[in-house]
Amino acid sequence: DAGKGRYNHYMLKEINEQPEALRQTLNGRVDLENERVELEEFPEGAFEGVDEVHFVACGTSYHAAVYARQLFHDRGIPAQAFFASEYATINPPLGENTLTVAVTQSGETADTLSALRRAAGKGGRTLAVTNVVGSTAAREADDALFIRAGPEIGVAATKTFSSQVVSLAMLAERMAEDRGAEPRADAARYLQALSDLPDAIEQVLGDTSAERVASAYADSLSHFFIGRGTGHAVALEGALKFKEITYEHAEAFAAGELKHGPLALVTSETPVFAVLSGDYDEKTYGNMEEVKSRGAPVIALTDAPESVSRVTDDVITMPETHEDLKSLLANVQLQLLSYHAASLRGRAIDKPRNLAKSVTVE
Ligand code: G6P
């Protein structure tokens, strides 16, 4: 327990370690002067021939992959994200130049290793994106990219999600360059925002809104999370975190899918958290209206509180950053929300019932 320092839980310590973890993740990898990403693991042109990326991952790492899929698409790289536990069943065909990327904090998750081995067995090229040097995934994959977040003890992954997304964001840039893509029109602004992300997260950590909101909606029947694009990836992660450590029902929906079924669940007892990622926010405002008119409290996570006041009951305001990174800041707020909600309920936050940090059986 000495390792917890001044915090009551490893989870809170690790949430607060994110600025430092990200500084390590980014260290020496973003070259602002030449407006490019430099990953020392890979020689120039290493990804030249890659024409498609398949992510395989579980749990929080899967959500990092869903987030990253959009960043790869933005750079013209076809990408798909698979639950590693479904990979054998879905059995996606591998093109000659498909790169299978296992995203795994521990590098030991059995389902993920199994998917990785399956892809390798078909002759596919593999890459592990992991926190643990010397892990099975790092050893078995053709290549490894280390996220350098430092050890994570809390069962619920927090800082490693942020470091995974940022590592994958940098990988997307490197791959785009190797594939001969045009540099991003906003390269300078984007790379600056990546470098400044640790400071932006520090600002988020200084805000107490999540704790207030956790207690305001503590008696709810269920917590719902909605978003579009990267906001949907973070909604999924927000709901997973909430379930894992509060033992309460929580669920995420793609904002536009609400009307195709989930809306039937919405009442005054189901607060809806909207992650406004900048991806078609206007449409999400419409979805927020849909739930608000059914009596559900709506809580927006946004950097533009004035534009949402009409459709919200509560706002968690974030500092401004590049559009592609906004949802990462919202994710930190949702980590804090889950933490405080679990703390109010007296849960075993670092070791939630029935869960393990690394699941080594399929
Ligand atoms: C377990 C943990 C999750 C984690 C998942 C994947 O289920 O409880 O927090 O996201 O495994 O772990 P990995 O080490 O592969 O990222």
TrEMBL record:
It comes from the Archaea. Its EC number is 2.6.1.16. Its main location: cytoplasm. The active site is at 357 (for fru-6p isomerization activity). GO terms for cellular component: cytoplasm. Residues 39-181, 213-352 form the SIS domain. It catalyses: D-fructose 6-phosphate + L-glutamine = D-glucosamine 6-phosphate + L-glutamate. It is found in: Cytoplasm. Keywords: Aminotransferase, Cytoplasm, Glutamine amidotransferase, Repeat, Transferase. The keyword Kinase does not apply. One of its GO terms (molecular function) is glutamine-fructose-6-phosphate transaminase (isomerizing) activity. GO terms for biological process: carbohydrate metabolic process. It is an enzyme of class 2 (transferase). The keyword Ribonucleoprotein does not apply. Catalyzes the first step in hexosamine metabolism, converting fructose-6P into glucosamine-6P using glutamine as a nitrogen source. Homodimer. This is Glutamine--fructose-6-phosphate aminotransferase [isomerizing]. It comes from Halobium salinum. The chain holds residues 244 to 605 of 605 of the full protein.
